[in-house]
Every structure is written in C-alpha cells, then in structure tokens.
Amino acid sequence: VLINSGSRHEAKYLSGISHFLEKLAFSSTAQFGSKDEILLTLEKHGGICDCQASRDTIMYAVSADAKGLDTVVNLLADVALQPRLSDEEIEMTRTAIRFELEDLNMRPDPEPLLTEMIHAAAYRDNTVGLNRFCPLENTDKIDREVLHSYLRNYYTPDRMVLAGVGIEHEQLVECAKKHLLGAEPVWGSGQTKDVDRSVAQYTGGIVKVEKDMSDVSLGPTPIPELTHIMIGLESSSFLEEDFIPFAVLNMMMGGGGSFSAGGPGKGMFTRLYLNVLNRHHWMYNATSYHHSYEDTGLLCIHASADPKQVREMVEIITREFILMAGAVGEVELERAKTQLKSMLMMNLESRPVIFEDVGRQVLATNTRKLPHELCALISQVKSSDIKRVVTKMLHKKPAVAALGDLTDLPTYEHIQAALSSKDGRLPRMYRLFR
C-alpha cells in the first residue's frame, strides 16, 4: 500500500510525524495484538514486511508466497487503517527515534544529513524542504491525538494505491474490494480539513553546519578529516518532459568516491571521474545526484576534501556545472543513455523495485509508463536537449549545503557569482597587506 503522505505534507503539523509513522508501522492493530503476531502470520507464508517513509510517500510493503494473498491484503489494510498506537508503542518509538538521531550525527557517512541540508536550503521552510527526520524537541510532543489528526487528513482512499507484483490483477482487485473498500479507519472518516496542497517553492540558499569531523572514524585506519559540500540547482519534476534529459545528464556526470572501483553503472568514463577525481587526487568524493518530485526536482553534486582545500573544491564543482552547458560529445552522450537504460532494466529485475515503480507511478500519474516506453524516451535525448535544460537550470539561484570545518568556505554570493560566470571561477579575493 502506497500513500501520498510524507514529510512534505507536515507544514500545518509538528515536523516528524511521518518518521513516527514509519517506526510505528506493523505494530499492534485491531486484529493483531502485537508485532510478533503479525510476524508469525507472515511467517506462515514465508513473508517479510517493511515500511518506508520518504518526502512524498509512505509505503507499507509485504513480500510473501502468492497463496497468502488474501491474508497479506487483510494485514496491510489493518496495518494502514487500524493501528492501535498504544502509549507503550509510542514511547518505544520515541526512544528509537532519539537513538537514530544520535546515530545520524555520529555516522562517518554524512550523506543522509547532507541530503536533508540541501533540501532545506533549496526549499526553505516549504514542502520537500521540510525535515524528513523528527527534530529532537518534537519527540515528546507527538502523541496519538496528533497522529490521528494527521492520519484523518492524509490516509484517505483518494491518496492510496494498492500495488502488487507476481499476482493476477483480478485477484488483487477482489482482495481490495473485500478488505479495503468501505473500510472504516480507527480515526473515523470525518471531513478532511487541513490537507496541504501547496506546490514546492524553490528558494535557493545556504545551510551550514560547523562540525568537528576529526574524530568521526573509528578503527585502525582513520578516515582523514573531511569537509563536505553539496551544491544543487532546481531541475524538473518527474512529470515534465525535461525529466529524461536530466536523468541522462545525471548519468553523464556520475562520479563516486575516490576508492570505488567503477563497477557496473558507476562509470569510470563519467565526467566527475574523468575531470575531477582523476585530476585532483586530494578529492575524496565527487558524486552527482538527482532528486525528483511531482512538482520540482534538484540536481546536485556532493564533494568532499580536506578542510584546507574547500575553496578549490567549490571552484572545481562550479566549473563542472558551467561545463554542463557546453559541448556534449556524441560518444559520452550515447554512453550515458546506454548506462541509464541498463540501470533501469537491471533494477527492474527485482520484484520489490517493480512494485515500487508501479505504485509510485500510479500514485503520481494514475498510469504506468512501461520500461520500453522509458527506453524509447531516453534514446530520443539529443545533446541540444542537455544544453537546453542546463541553460535553464543555471539561471536559478544555487542551493548549498556545507558540513565540517568551514573556515575556507567561499561566501554564498561568491558561489552564486561563479555559477553565473562564463568559466565557473570564484571571484578572486584580494588580501590587503599593510
């Protein structure tokens, strides 16, 4: 079951509700007395369950033997619409979230933190810029009443999709009619009144966190102290035609850590490998990411290096952004398109991915584009399309996230100036000598 509900919908609520719901999933319900009962029921059909909340979707998923279809749909309906949310479970969730927040700040891999920061910088205080993790001060404020109020507004039939893979469509429809049609949720079916329908407003901006990263790594081979920078620009939503050229561009930029050996889909021929990691041995990481939602998107590059080289690192990244708008070689374009297609096909070998793909597409567009249709669209991308989408993207204000020792970080205005210049260079700083 996929539900159009996530941290982006929490504008009128306490931040962190989706994080709570994700942790509370598959706990006791009207029919099942505890999490153990649910797991035992699933075990009879060789099943496993999982819940994942993202910025725009929450997904309750079960993989089990097809013979257990009726049991599974009944269980999913119960978990989504009839959770007990006992005081004890909510208290345990608070503890789990506090532990997770603590762990998040201690991890050597700053990826989750940086992703939060770049979204907060790009969409200041709105929709996808809202925090996906529950802030520490809200853990005690979120209780059953708050959760019910939120669920009443967002867990409504028009915002839900039941998706299945490996079963006949008719069977799934029958089960949906039996267990979900007309099901009365535990919070009642009153009128929804606080549904946030706001569209993402891209603001650009900078979010900095000064943090001592010198003791992050444990173990005999310590990771050197690094400063992490992420620079992003608004791209396009996955409903727009430009989404495909952006996906190809992201593949073309590629990149990774300086230690990764390439592997399928990594691409030693991507620009961030060839132009950045191969030339600047002191850079530990340069990776391109593309986040896309139904009303906006964000293309960003994450880079990390020694704190003393932050300024140089920022300039290398801004230059790469400017070079995106330049000439695109026929060979590199074809390679990126082939890589994107092969990645798409390889991912769709696994059933959980197909399930998520079907569910998310139907939730957003009411239809599903089949893999061969997507491959045809990828094949049609020309170098002029890349140039067009990049030129449009470079007119926007940048979003910047910076984590670590930021003594040498250029100012936001300088980064913005570099991205609007012809060569991507930072304005020179003149030191006055007496």
TrEMBL record:
PROSITE patterns: INSULINASE (PS00143). One of its GO terms (cellular component) is mitochondrial inner membrane. One of its GO terms (biological process) is protein processing involved in protein targeting to mitochondrion. Residues 141-340 form the Peptidase M16 C-terminal domain. Residues 1-135 form the Peptidase M16 N-terminal domain. Its main location: mitochondrion. The keyword Transmembrane does not apply. Keywords: Membrane, Mitochondrion, Mitochondrion inner membrane, Transit peptide. One of its GO terms (molecular function) is metalloendopeptidase activity. It is found in: Mitochondrion inner membrane; Mitochondrion matrix. SUPFAM superfamilies: LuxS/MPP-like metallohydrolase. PANTHER family: METALLOPROTEASE, MITOCHONDRIAL-PROCESSING PEPTIDASE SUBUNIT ALPHA. Heterodimer of PMPCA (alpha) and PMPCB (beta) subunits, forming the mitochondrial processing protease (MPP) in which PMPCA is involved in substrate recognition and binding and PMPCB is the catalytic subunit. Belongs to the peptidase M16 family. Substrate recognition and binding subunit of the essential mitochondrial processing protease (MPP), which cleaves the mitochondrial sequence off newly imported precursors proteins. This is Mitochondrial-processing peptidase subunit alpha. It comes from Pygoscelis papua. The gene is Pmpca.
